[in-house]
């Protein structure tokens, strides 16, 4: 239990919800001599930077039709190879 302590809290919503939902920054009592607006801007900048650096690279997914055509081509190639031998 904490008694007699006061902290300011900044809650920033995530720019990318797949990385994190919210970022919570707990400031020391005086906030380090910066204004409230500066503290919020810095917290938002930190959250954006973290989300940007921890994004998973997007994987390219081929449509089902491409996989079907590739499978048909493979079956045709195997059939042709077996027929000619």
Explain the overall architecture.
The structure is a single chain. The protein has 85 residues and is α+β, with helices and mostly antiparallel strands. The protein has a domain at 1-56. The protein is 46% helix and 14% strand. The chain has helices at 36-53, 64-84; strands spanning 8-13, 22-27. The longest helix is centred in the last third of the chain and has 21 residues, at 64-84. The mean pLDDT is 84.
Q: Gap between N and C termini, in Å?
A: 82 Å
Low-confidence stretches: none
Q: Describe the sheet with the most strands.
A: 2 strands, antiparallel
Alpha-carbon Rg, integer? 27 Å
Secondary-structure element string: EEHH
How would you write the strand order of the largest sheet? 1-2
**Topology, number of strands:** 2
Number of DSSP helices? 2
Query: What percentage of amino acids are in beta strands?
Result: 5-15%
Mean pLDDT over the full residue set: 84
**Helix/strand structural class:** alpha+beta
Q: Per the principal axes of the C-alpha atoms, what is the gross shape?
A: rod-shaped
* Portion in helices: 40-55%
Short characterization:
The protein is an alpha+beta fold and 85 residues long. It has helices at 36-53, 64-84, and strands at 8-13, 22-27.
Which descriptors would you attach to this protein?
85 residues, two-stranded antiparallel sheet, alpha+beta
List the helices and strands and how they pair.
Layout: E1 8-13, E2 22-27, H1 36-53, H2 64-84
Antiparallel strand pairs: 1-2
């Amino acid at each position: 239990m904490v008694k007699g302590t006061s902290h300011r809290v900044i809650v920033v919503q995530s720019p990318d919800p797949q990385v994190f939902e919210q970022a919570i920054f707990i400031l020391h009592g005086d906030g380090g001599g910066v204004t409230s607006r500066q503290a919020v801007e810095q917290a938002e900048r930190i959250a954006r930077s973290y989300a940007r650096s921890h994004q998973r690279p997007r994987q390219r997914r081929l449509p089902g039709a491409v996989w079907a055509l590739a499978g048909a081509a493979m079956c045709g190639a195997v059939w042709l190879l077996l027929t000619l031998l």
